[in-house]
Amino acid sequence: MAHEGLWKQLVGLDCQKTAKRAKCQYLSDPQRYVVTLLNSEYVVNLSDREVFSIQSGLSPAAAEFLEQLCLLAYLINAQDLPLANKLVGPGVLPGGQFFFRGLHSLPIKKLEAAFGSCPERLYQTMERFGSKRREFGDASIELYVLPRFPLTIVVWGSDEEFGARASILFDQTAALHLPLDALLAGVNLAVDAVVMACG
């Protein structure tokens, strides 16, 4: 089973305390959490060890590997803490300077390719993800990957002198709620979803 170690950790936790830490809903019979991931609801079913998305009018859909990783790791690690409201780059997060390199680099090139020629297209995604406009770069939004994990995406458009640039910023508390591998998974899910929403 995928993520067997995470499931073992999760089922050993106090369900009510876990729901409070993660700012999500816990329901019994069967035991399950309902968690919002990128503005969509997911059910994490403890009895069957299944994760699936629930969207109005659609049949439940099994969560993908990265979605499962994010949700399980988040339920295990989330802390009942307010946001710091201080944005930082990935290298400032504990261990981030060494982790976010090579294969673990943030997917900013996808953002540059998708929005570099027209940064304002980023705002077309706001309603889909319940995000809000920020005042950085040529276009920027803040969206919640998970209830305690917001991301800020910033794009600078290309011109005659410079190519497009993009940046991904975190609240200073991000690494308290997710280990870095799950954090990166959440970033990849968010960027892919934002790019696809404008495709």
List the helices and strands and how they pair.
Layout lengths: L3 H8 L3 H8 L2 E3 L4 E6 L2 E6 L4 E5 L6 E2 L2 H13 L9 E2 L7 H4 L8 H8 L10 H4 L2 E2 L5 E8 L2 E8 L8 E7 L2 H4 L2 H18 L2
Antiparallel strand pairs: 1-2, 2-3, 3-4, 4-5, 6-10, 7-8, 8-9, 9-10
Helix pairs in contact: 1-3, 2-3, 3-8
One letter per element, helices H and strands E, the order comes to HHEEEEEHEHHHEEEEHH
How far is the N terminus from the C terminus?
A: 33 Å
Poorly predicted segments: none
| Percent of residues in beta strands | 15-25%
Oligomer: single chain
Number of domains: 2
Q: Which percent range fits the helix content?
A: 25-40%
Shape: globular
Radius of gyration, in angstroms, nearest whole number: 17 Å
Strand order of the largest sheet: 1-2-3-4-5
SSE class: alpha+beta
Please give the largest β-sheet.
5 strands, antiparallel
Quickly describe the structure.
This protein has 199 residues and is an alpha+beta fold.
Supply database-style keywords.
199 residues; single chain; alpha+beta; five-stranded antiparallel β-sheet; 8 helices
Detailed description of the structure:
There is one protein chain. The protein is 34% helix and 25% strand. Strand 2 and strand 3 form a beta hairpin. It folds into two domains: 4-77, no CATH class; 87-197. The two termini are 33 Å apart. The longest helix is centred in the C-terminal third of the chain and has 18 residues, at 180-197. The chain has 199 residues and is an alpha+beta fold. The radius of gyration is 17 Å and the shape is globular. It has helices spanning 4-11, 15-22, 65-77, 96-99, 108-115, 126-129, 174-177, 180-197; strands spanning 25-27, 32-37, 40-45, 50-54, 61-62, 87-88, 132-133, 139-146, 149-156, 165-171.
